[in-house]
Amino acid sequence: MNAPTGRMTDFIRKQTYETEVLQLRRRLAKVHRILTAGGMWPLTKGHASARIPGTDKVLILGHIHATGRSLDQVDVDDIVVVNLEGEWLEGEIEPVDERYLHLEIMKARPDVMSVVHAHSTYATAFGVADVNILPVGNRGAIFGPSVPILQFDRQIDTPERGRMVSDLMGKGCAVVLKNHGVAVASDSIENACITAFALEETAHLHWIAAQLGPVQRISTGEVQSVLTGARKAEFFAHAWGHYAKLDPWDGMNRPV
How many domains does the chain fold into? Predict the structure, then answer.
């Protein structure tokens, strides 16, 4: 069999790329539906993003609210493409204004493949009260030594504001936005989703414990143990099956 010509090779690469991007779109749409079902964004306001590997392009939600739809209905066509500078490249719907929150984190952190911005109730309340969420409980270790609070309560809709979030997050995985919600980041779409849930669960547990007495954070040694090696992979791998079942499209013969 003859080796493929240059034109054929380019065609195969293009087809492979388009297939990979379609799969990313499906995974990202699914996470929007899961986070909605899990109550991570009241009034279904929030968004998630995913870096397209090997490119300067990012998949992010379009402004579907302008069409009268909510995030429990997100499908692949609602996901648009922007570059790391925030320019709208592909898609029928204009990307969300707060895309710079996602993009500035990704620009500063090559390891970050996905970002979620949510308005989860308990974590947001800690920002309102100006109290840092501590790493408590068996899902809180990834947030050690504590979750920083951005002392700015407006939309993150410019690169400069996005850099404030990125700078504060540093090498961590979460920031509370004062009076505005949270931002979390991880190395995959699914892990960013899990991180958003883990942050809200940790904030809820912290709040309950505070009603009973002084809050005791997880030891530094335990935090470091969970943040490295096999235990970190286990932290995420064991949780995804649970959250994936929240997708209301599960079992409806739709592509996932």
Answer: 1
**Is 155 contained in some domain?**
yes
Give the separation between CA 225 and CA 231, rounded to whole angstroms: 7
Instruction: Establish if 78 belongs to a structural domain.
Output: yes
Q: Write down how long the chain is.
A: 256
| pLDDT tens column, 33-64 | 999 999 998 776 799 999 999 999 999 999 99
Its pTM stands at: 0.91
Mind spelling out the 3-state secondary structure of 44-70?
HCCEEEEECCCCCEEEEEECHHHHCCC
User: Pick from 108, 136, 110: which is nearest to 207 by CA?
Assistant: 136
Domain range for residue 79? 10-244
| DSSP code per residue over the chain | -PPPPHHHHHHHHHHHHHHHHHHHHHHHHHHHHHHHHTTSSGGG--EEEEE-TTSSEEEEEB-GGGGT--GGG--GGGEEEEETT--EEE-SSPBPTTHHHHHHHHHH-TT--EEEEE--HHHHHHHHHT-PPP--STT-GGG-S---EES--S---SHHHHHHHHHHHTTSSEEEETTTEEEEEESSHHHHHHHHHHHHHHHHHHHHHHHHS---PPPHHHHHHHTSHHHHHHHHHHHHHHHHTT-TTTTSS---
Residue 3 belongs to some domain of the structure: no
pLDDT in tens, 104-153: 999 999 999 999 999 999 999 999 999 999 999 989 999 999 999 999 99
Q: Is residue 30 part of a domain?
A: yes
Distance between CA atoms of 235 and 187, rounded to whole angstroms?
13
